[in-house]
């Protein structure tokens, strides 16, 4: 799916790369920066703690310093009680850091059994005096007195509630003062103290607040809270705060370590609220009190998290913007490609007029579009040219087809002729090499003369066909005029020579056969000599020939004469036959033709003709026909057959006229059938004659354009061996033997023409056919041998 | 000259048998054409022209058969001739008419073919 569109691919890949690159960069930056942030955070908190601690130290130092100064003074000077009291008052009054202070003389030095211990303190901001030397208080028993005396040096006393004194939670710095008496013995003179209210520590501890829930605390050396976030904790041991055993152990360990002066830091579960907290403890140098802070890591790290969040947001935003930018730019660049792809799809489907997208700029895509555009134009032109060429080729083929039909119709019986009369049987066939050709034949029977000709125009194809048309019309004009072949040849030559700029020529064989005496006069203009099959042998006829027609004017052609006999078979042909080549470039040759002709001796004229052409085809094999082929066979019937005429005398004649109504064919057939029942002959022969008769009559009915009132006459002359039928119609002059369109026989069903069959039947089902035009009537005469 | 036409139809194998009796010439051709046309329009896979009683055929008759053959072939069906008498055969031959039309020389051949068709129908 991703791979389907270049746009999608680009966008996805670029965005992914951007995500990876920017993501990595930002991650790296975050890593580095967060370390810095963490460091800073930690430094800040450390600084804050340190500052607070320092402040506290200062304060405590101050308190210690003042008290020790006072003690030193007392050690060295004597003062009266009033003096001492005054000094004390001054100290307390001028020292806001101190809550209260006392100078407690050793009762033995006080000069009274109760002792001397003035106490000045700031009660609610007002300097107040209290005398500690009363019975209730018993100051020598107090911890501050005893501990310091016992220690022999200044001590910080465990915090306590000074009832009767300051009446507050306090802790006291007690400095014992020793003197040396006259004997050099040390003795206690007094104890000087300074009290600090635990509440005052609060202010310092407030500085130790880290985060909203963090707090600072101060412990005494025995673990009692001197300062705590919650005033209720004061005076309680830290063990009371911690709930779990494990936590207590940790606290104890840290307390001990802090007491020893180590700075310790540990993670603990937060007291009072959920989460992880950090506990840091160290101790105050001056007093040795452990001081610590507890803070929630989460809260401390809030700036870091802030930073994380901001970083993430910025990353996402920039990635988003980058993705959008990638999408927009990519689409802009690849849009022409997409359009082009779509358009080319349309063009491939044949819609050559689809407009191409506009080419912007001069980058590769623009080049592509331009190339496509010119390719499209070229394609259109090419296709248009192809269509024109195909159209003109189709037209040309159509014209050639029409030309072939016209050419064939110029030849008697349309290029395939057979004519059987009592004197002869003539068979002729032209087979052009291309659609149209330059070969021709012609024949014409006029009275007792049979005029026939075979010709071959130089070359083949359309030029030859056009020349052939000229030639054949000239020849056909001369047929039946009684002109001798030699003179006819000369005349045709002159006619063809004029206007023959192309120097086309035609070889021609022209013959006139006298049907009475079988004398054949002929002339040849460069034409292949015909072959004569007489008896058992075939040989080429000797001829005195002249030059081919059409090249030079006023030529003379010699007259040739050949005496034909009954049983002769004359074959006139063009060189398309003897010069037919096979794959080995061998020619069929006149010898080959003569051999084939001889082999066909027993065959009828038609089957001989077909057989000879087949022999040429067999010889040529796959080699295509290279020249037009024409064959004309003229059979003089054997002596026995001619006795047909002799039978004329014994004929029985019946004549009948029929009107050209709807039932013409039926009437004729009925009549003929009745007649035939009385004649001799096989049923088969009679049936065939009936068919022939029906065809003749039907043709007249269909084509002669006779009114229904007109009538035709049918004459039947029969003998024991044959029957002659003559049909006379007064219709327009029409020789069915020559002028009918004949359908091509043997076509498969799809191509078969349904018309033109009748004439075939007429010529094949009867033994002889002839036509004449007399007194305005077409007379068609057919003879049928009724015998076996 | 007359012509009697009988039509027998086998719906199962889609075969129509048209028997001709008499002469098929210019006169009798029109009526025969009509009859044959009706059968063709029935759309049977095979139409057999049984010519065992046909004594006479001319080009008019052939034209009718040609036309019918063209119609059936273009519709993908078949027209066949059976039992042609020798002289009828000859006319077809002379004219080399319909070389691709099926021809059954005798009743046996026709029966064999029809049996085969029936078996095909049964198998389908």
Protein architecture, described:
The complex is a heterodimer of chains A (788) and B (124). Chain A is of the alpha+beta class and 788 residues long. Chain A has 5 domains: 26-193, Beta-Lactamase; 208-300, 2-Layer Sandwich (Beta-Lactamase); 358-410; 412-637, PPM-type phosphatase domain (Phosphatase 2c, domain 1, 4-Layer Sandwich); 644-785, 2-Layer Sandwich (Heat Shock Protein 90), CATH 3.30.565. Helices cover 43% and strands 24% of the residues of chain A. Chain A is built from 19 helices and 29 strands. In chain A, strands 1, 2, 3, 4, 5, 6 and 7 form a 7-stranded antiparallel sheet that branches. Chain A is rod-shaped, with a radius of gyration of 74 Å. Chain B is α/β, with parallel strands linked by helices. Chain B has a single domain (3-117), classed as STAS domain (Transcription Regulator spoIIAA), CATH 3.30.750.24. Helices cover 44% and strands 31% of the residues of chain B. In chain B, strand 2, helix 1 and strand 3 (46-57) form a beta-alpha-beta unit. The longest helix of chain B is centred in the C-terminal third of the chain and has 17 residues, at 107-123. Chain B is globular and about 45 Å long. The model of chain B has no long low-confidence stretch (mean pLDDT 85). The chains are: A alpha+beta (788), B alpha/beta (124). The A-B interface holds A 663, 665-666, 669-670, 673, 684, 687-688, 690-691, 694-695, 697-698, 701, 745-750, 752, 754-755, 757-758, 760-761, 764-765 and B 1, 25-27, 55-60, 62-63, 66-67, 69-70, 73-74, 86-87, 90-91, 94-101.
Which terms summarize this structure?
heterodimer, A: 788 residues, alpha+beta, Beta-Lactamase, 5 domains, seven-stranded antiparallel sheet, six-stranded antiparallel sheet, rod-shaped, B: 124 residues, alpha/beta, five-stranded mixed sheet, globular
Topology diagram in text:
The complex is a heterodimer of chains A (788) and B (124).
Chain A: H1 6-76, H2 81-94, E1 100-105, H3 107-110, E2 118-123, E3 126-131, H4 143-151, E4 155-156, E5 160-161, E6 169-180, E7 186-197, H5 198-206, E8 215-219, E9 225-227, H6 245-259, E10 264-269, E11 276-283, E12 290-296, H7 297-300, H8 302-348, H9 364-410, E13 416-420, E14 425-431, E15 439-446, E16 449-457, H10 462-478, H11 485-497, E17 506-514, E18 519-525, E19 531-534, E20 537-540, E21 545-546, E22 560-563, E23 569-573, H12 575-578, H13 589-599, H14 605-620, E24 629-635, H15 639-646, E25 652-659, H16 664-678, H17 683-703, E26 711-718, E27 722-729, H18 736-739, H19 758-765, E28 768-774, E29 777-785
Parallel strand pairs in A: 18-21
Antiparallel strand pairs in A: 1-2, 1-7, 2-3, 4-6, 5-6, 6-7, 8-9, 8-12, 10-11, 11-12, 13-14, 14-24, 15-16, 16-17, 17-18, 18-22, 19-20, 19-23, 23-24, 25-26, 26-27, 27-29, 28-29
Helix pairs in contact in A: 1-8, 8-9, 10-11, 16-17, 17-19
Chain B: E1 3-10, E2 15-24, H1 29-41, E3 46-57, H2 59-74, E4 78-82, H3 86-94, E5 102-104, H4 107-123
Parallel strand pairs in B: 2-3, 3-4, 4-5
Antiparallel strand pairs in B: 1-2
Helix pairs in contact in B: 1-2
């Amino acid at each position: 799916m991703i791979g389907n569109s270049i746009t999608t691919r680009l966008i996805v890949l670029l965005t992914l790369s951007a995500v990876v690159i920017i993501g990595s960069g930002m991650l790296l930056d975050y890593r580095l920066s967060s370390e810095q942030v963490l460091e800073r955070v930690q430094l800040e908190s450390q600084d804050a703690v340190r500052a607070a601690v320092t402040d506290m130290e200062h304060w405590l130092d101050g308190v210690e310093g003042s008290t020790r100064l006072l003690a030193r003074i007392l050690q060295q000077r004597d003062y009266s009680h009033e003096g001492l009291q005054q000094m004390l008052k001054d100290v307390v009054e001028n020292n806001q850091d101190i809550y209260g202070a006392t100078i407690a003389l050793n009762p033995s030095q006080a000069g009274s059994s109760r002792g001397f211990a003035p106490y000045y303190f700031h009660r609610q901001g007002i300097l107040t005096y209290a005398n500690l030397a009363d019975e209730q208080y018993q100051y020598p028993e107090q911890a501050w007195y005893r501990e310091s005396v016992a220690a022999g040096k200044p001590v910080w006393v465990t915090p306590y509630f000074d009832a009767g004194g300051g009446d507050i939670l306090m802790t006291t710095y007690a400095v014992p003062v020793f003197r040396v008496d006259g004997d050099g013995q040390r003795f206690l003179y007094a104890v000087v103290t300074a009290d600090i209210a635990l509440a005052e520590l609060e202010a310092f501890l407030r500085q130790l607040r880290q985060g909203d829930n963090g707090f600072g605390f101060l412990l005494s050396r025995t673990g009692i809270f001197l300062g705590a976030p919650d005033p209720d904790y004061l005076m309680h041991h830290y063990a009371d705060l911690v709930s779990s055993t494990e936590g207590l152990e940790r606290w104890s360990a840290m307390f001990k370590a802090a007491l020893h002066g180590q700075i310790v830091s540990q993670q603990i579960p937060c007291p009072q609220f959920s989460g992880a907290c950090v506990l840091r403890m160290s101790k105050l140098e001056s007093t040795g009190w452990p001081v610590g802070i507890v803070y929630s890591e989460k809260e401390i790290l809030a700036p870091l998290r802030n930073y994380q969040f901001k970083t993430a947001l910025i990353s996402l935003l920039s990635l988003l913007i980058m993705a959008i930018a990638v999408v927009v730019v990519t689409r802009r660049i690849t849009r022409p490609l997409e359009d082009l792809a779509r358009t080319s799809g349309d063009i491939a489907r044949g819609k050559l007029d689809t407009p191409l997208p506009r080419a912007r700029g001069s980058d590769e895509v623009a080049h592509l579009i331009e190339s496509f555009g010119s390719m499209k134009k070229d394609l259109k032109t090419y296709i248009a040219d192809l269509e024109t060429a195909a159209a003109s080729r189709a037209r040309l083929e159509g014209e050639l087809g029409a030309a072939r039909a016209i050419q064939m119709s110029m030849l008697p019986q349309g290029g395939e002729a057979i004519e059987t009369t009592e004197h002869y049987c003539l068979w002729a066939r032209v087979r052009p090499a291309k659609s149209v050709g330059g070969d021709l034949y012609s024949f014409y029977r006029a009275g007792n003369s049979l005029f026939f000709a075979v010709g071959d125009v130089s070359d083949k194809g359309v030029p030859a066909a056009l020349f052939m048309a000229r030639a054949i019309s000239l020849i056909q004009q001369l047929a039946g005029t009684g002109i001798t072949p030699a003179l006819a040849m000369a005349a045709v030559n002159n006619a063809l020579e004029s206007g023959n700029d192309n120097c086309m020529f035609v070889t021609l064989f022209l013959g006139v056969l006298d049907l009475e005496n079988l004398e054949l006069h002929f002339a040849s203009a460069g034409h292949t000599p015909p072959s004569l099959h007489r008896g058992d042998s075939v040989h080429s006829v000797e001829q005195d020939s002249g030059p081919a027609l059409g090249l030079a004017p006023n030529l003379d052609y010699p007259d040739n004469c050949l005496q034909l006999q009954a049983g002769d078979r004359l074959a006139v042909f063009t060189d398309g036959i003897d010069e037919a080549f096979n794959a080995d470039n061998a020619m069929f040759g006149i010898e080959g033709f003569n051999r084939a002709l001889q082999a066909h001796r027993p065959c009828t004229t038609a089957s001989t003709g077909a057989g000879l052409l087949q022999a040429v085809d067999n010889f040529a094999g796959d080699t295509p026909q290279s020249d037009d082929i024409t064959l004309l066979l003229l059979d003089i019937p054997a002596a026995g057959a001619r006795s047909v005429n002799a039978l004329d005398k014994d004929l029985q004649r019946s004549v009948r006229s029929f009107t050209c109504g709807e039932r013409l064919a039926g009437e004729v057939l009925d009549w003929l059938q009745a007649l035939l029942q009385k004649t001799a002959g096989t049923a088969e022969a009679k049936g065939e004659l009936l068919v022939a008769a029906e065809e003749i009559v039907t043709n007249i009915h269909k084509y002669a354009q006779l009114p229904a009132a007109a009538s035709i006459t049918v004459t039947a002359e029969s003998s024991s061996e044959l029957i002659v039928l003559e049909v006379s119609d007064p219709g327009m002059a029409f020789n069915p033997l020559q002028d009918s369109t004949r359908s091509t026989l043997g076509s498969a069903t799809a191509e078969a023409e349904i018309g033109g069959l009748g004439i075939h039947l007429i010529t094949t089902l009867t033994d002889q056919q002839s036509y004449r035009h007399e007194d305005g009537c077409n007379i068609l005469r057919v003879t049928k041998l009724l015998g076996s | 000259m007359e012509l009697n036409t009988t039509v027998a139809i086998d719906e199962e194998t889609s075969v129509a048998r048209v028997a001709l009796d008499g002469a098929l010439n210019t006169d009798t051709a029109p009526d025969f054409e009509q009859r044959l046309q009706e059968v063709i329009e029935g759309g049977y896979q095979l139409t057999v022209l049984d010519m065992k009683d046909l004594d006479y055929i001319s080009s008019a008759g052939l034209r009718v058969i040609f036309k019918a053959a063209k119609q059936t072939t273009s519709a993908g069906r078949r027209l066949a001739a059976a039992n042609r008498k020798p002289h009828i055969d000859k006319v077809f031959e002379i004219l080399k008419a319909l070389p691709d039309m099926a021809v059954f020389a005798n009743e046996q051949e026709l029966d064999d073919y029809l049996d085969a068709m029936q078996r095909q129908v049964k198998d389908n």
